Amino acid sequence: RYVNDLQRLGLKTIARLDEIQGYELREEVTVAGVIVEVRERISKNGGARMAFLQLEDLTGRIEVLVFTKAYPSFEPYLSGDEPIIVTGRLVREGEEEDAMQLKLRAESARLLKDARAERTSRARIRLPAESVTPAHLKHLADLLRGPSGVAVEMVVAVKGKGQATVRLGEGWRLPVDDEVVARVERLVGAGAVAFA
User: What is the CA radius of gyration of the chain?
Assistant: First the structure.
């Protein structure tokens, strides 16, 4: 559900992190994924909490080191299954040069859906003219009528003839909310909603 947002938000995939070399390892990187494993520890000095996570996206998995300073920004997400955005610095750890593993030393975390909502200014809904009925349009109008959300563009596609884009007025808004997007896509088709 977030695949189209990853590039728009400037996030790297986990698989692409291996391409980062040398001095670039010290630069800040931002990735998104789902926490699939958590090991929490108490630090030796002061009893503060820390965690070691496995973060997974559609391209791979990386270990995320969450030390005591960053732990508070991760704590709300450790037991959930919502995709998160992790910002940190890459490190290579291991005994031998050819066996070193790439890890992410975390600095902060936040929900991907929150970042998407903050960085979205409009929604584009693609309507295949031949399969959308007046009943579909009525239900769609009910979902889009309201004061909150982002501006909406409707792309009406006529098979073999082309398409037209219509920008809806201020009274028509789409909330940047997974549940509402799922309801729209059940009406007009999977993948019909894109954010910009």
Answer: 21
pLDDT in tens, the chain (196 residues): 677 788 888 898 998 887 876 656 677 899 999 999 999 999 887 788 999 999 999 999 999 999 999 999 999 999 888 999 999 999 887 766 666 788 999 999 999 999 988 999 999 999 998 888 899 899 999 999 878 899 999 999 888 899 999 999 988 999 998 899 999 999 999 989 999 9
CA separation for the pair 151, 147 (Å, rounded): 10
DSSP annotation of 11 reads P
Which two three-digit tokens encode residue 68?
Answer: 């005591």
**Is pTM, for the whole model, over 0.70?**
yes
Which distant-in-sequence residues (6+ apart) come within 8 Å of 68 by Cβ?
Answer: 43, 46, 48, 49, 50
Q: In what helix (H) or strand (E) does residue 192 lie, and over which residues does it extend? A: none
How far from 24 is each of 19, 92, 115, 150, CA to CA, in Å? 10, 12, 25, 36
Signed CA dihedral, 40, 81, 85, 28: sign only: positive
